[in-house]
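Service request form, structural biology core

Requester: graduate student, group of Dr. S.
Request type: structure prediction, single chain
Budget code: on file
Notes: please return the result as structure tokens.

Sequence provided:
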Amino acid sequence: MTKTIKLYTVIIAKEVQRFFTYRVNIIAGIMTALLILAARYALWVALFATGNATQSSLIETMTYFVLCDIIRLWLASSYGNDIGDDIRTGDIAQRLVKPCSYHLLLVASFHASSITLTITRALPMLFVALVFIGLLAPVSVFAFVFFILSVMLGAVIYSLVDLIISYTAFWLTDYWYLSWFKRSLFTLFGGLALPIWFYPDWLANICNYLPFQYTMFQPLAIYLGRVHPDQIIYTFIIQLFWIGILLLAERTVWRFATKKLTVQGG
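Core staff response, request fulfilled:
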């Protein structure tokens, strides 16, 4: 266990150091975050000016999106590209026989990316949003604690869904669209492009039967007080249910994927 933790920290440290070697990465990250924030704010100001967005307020909507963007930096992994690259180059065969877990390498590399994006994107975006726009505080300390716990469970759900989709690269010669497909699912059914409270009833009902909204939308709904305190435990139960289902599916698909391994090139 100690060796695993040490290896995990070493991988993260090297990835972070490599990122900050080039200052342009820092500048580009900050500019990207601020441009996204400015564009989104201008869009929603215009929308609320029409008087059609009655399900929420501007400050609540901007709080939702700013926090959603920050959380997404820690959740939005790209395992499909990493696995696909390893299969295409043939490195997957060597990585699978190493004493270090292949999944540990994937997770450590992703967390290193999350740390750099937090510094260069999340923190500047949060600072500017707090100073120039204003964000809502959690409705209560109780809600904030359960928001953090729900985010952690949501991160597990996101990673499991991402891994299951990414494993299809073992059967495909082209894998570039896997990340696009995954983003599309979370964007539509997870409330990433639009909070689900703006959805028509029929689409919101579909989302209730899928795991995607339990990664970011439901934790943010808890933060904003849109989930009644009596329903928070029910949300946790649903998250744990999806974790159990997805974990079983992930282990099953992984077992079949490693048997199907076909290295293209390399």
